[in-house]
Amino acid sequence: MIIKEFRELGRDRRTMAMLIVLPVLLLVVFAYAANFTVSSFRTYVVGPEASALAAKLPPAFDVVSVQPEAGASEAHTVLRDGEAAIVFDTTTTPPTAWVDGADLLTAQSALAAFGRAGLPVTPKVLFNPQLKTSWYMVPALIGLILAFIGTIVTTIGLVREREAGTLEQLSVMPFRPSDVILGKIAPYFVLSAIDLVIVVVLGMVLFGVPFVGSVAVFALGAAFFLFAVLGLGVLISTISQTQGQAIQGAILVLLPQILLSGMLFPLAAMPWGVRWIGYVTPLSYFIELSRAVMLRGAPITAASVWVPVVVLVGMAAVIFGLAVWRFRAQLAPTRSAKRGADTPTETGATAVV
Q1: Exposed / middle / buried, residue 131 (Cβ in 10 Å: 0-12, 13-18, 19+)
Q2: Which helix or strand (DSSP H or E) is residue 65 part of?
Q3: 98 bridge partner residues
Q4: Comparing 39-53, 138-152, 238-252, which segment has the lowest mean pLDDT?
Q5: DSSP secondary-structure letter at 213?
Q6: Prediction pTM value
């Protein structure tokens, strides 16, 4: 029995991946990426003494723009649009250091850096003045919940139909693979959208999380995010034969998104060796978008909004295309066999005559 079990495990690639890849992934993530301290801050300096103050700032404050003509209103706009984490305003005495509180961990690290550097500034936090953890986590948890629902439920539902034989019946119907996939994910899309509304409202009511941005912009980004995660569910189902395999595949896809999306650990604090994984996951971009819209009220023209939307559109298109390609490849043998069965052979034709 022991030898038999080892042989079966050797043939089950997904289980072997869970047993080998998952522990390695967890070790690498928690050893390298689990860092709550941000060591570098994207910084703007504005006001008449901007150049002089910028020259005195420690290297941790990465000054990317010096604007002597700008003032407090421009500083707020820069933070709202996500162009910087800190803006030093020299129009006041002492200078004011405006900090983006929507990025909680970066803001906490920045406030600690002010004390270590001994800077003669007055720090003020925008968009999350009390640095509440719930304000930081709820926009990310919205994306996490949608990713779980969209990926796992879609994957299991389609694999269940394959096990029941109903997907093969579609091969004899005049549907294109893209029609089948769109028809399958449409109900899940509607139900996930309802879940989105429920979760956002509960986050606002129970935890007092503000929603200061445009609902239409948020809905646009959420729609493309849902399309991407539903497509992931379909893609996983095309390479899974059983519900157990589907769950294993969904876990392998979801776990890196949870750990490396910026929800738990800031991407800026991760080494590039693991940070790039976060940049190829849909959840990373939805979290960036949701925090920008809900907490900062960033418009569609802000880079923290339009960049995630564009990336999510591209991801949704690529994932949907791969799912259609895989589904077409699975339906092709069944349709060929059906056409062969419907075509009369020469012997059969002679018999009929």
Answers
A1: middle
A2: strand 61-67
A3: 87, 124
A4: 238-252
A5: S
A6: 0.86
